[in-house]
Amino acid sequence: MNVLSNPDVFPGEEVLKEILSEESFHVYIKLMNSLNNSPDGSHANLKDGLIYEWRYYNDGKSWLCKVANKKRTIFWLSVWEGYFKVSFYFTEKHKQGICDLAISDVIKQQFLSAKPVGKLIPLTIDINSIKQLPDLIEIINLRIG
Length: 145
Description:
Helix content: 25-40%
Strand order of the largest sheet: 1-2-3-4-5-6
Order of helices and strands: HHEEEEEHHEH
Shape: globular
Distance between the termini: 32 Å
Strand content: 25-35%
Radius of gyration: 15 Å
Mean pLDDT: 89
Number of helices: 5
Low-confidence stretches: 38-46
Number of domains: 1
């Protein structure tokens, strides 16, 4: 269950530390540090013109972190009890790119078997281990282009 449902409680590091497992929190920090040039809370500049922003979405009644390059969304991050999810949306033209990445075969199979949402193919990864970070960075780099 997505646990960041209170619009009055911003999901800062202290809040996230309470919700995520110790390892998942460590992965979250490493992910943000690997992308982030200057961590400063809700909104920060990332490499290659990326920005992230935590925002409360009324339609889903929860906080989500959107990482974007200008107006193009790179991925969405949601927090769950003990772990977080990173969601990407690719087009058909990215299928070969995903298959060519040096990432887990499980992720590749998940992507190849995903049902499209309109013209977009979703890829959502539950993150709970530091071992997943290299695969995640590879996918982010592909998405950035």
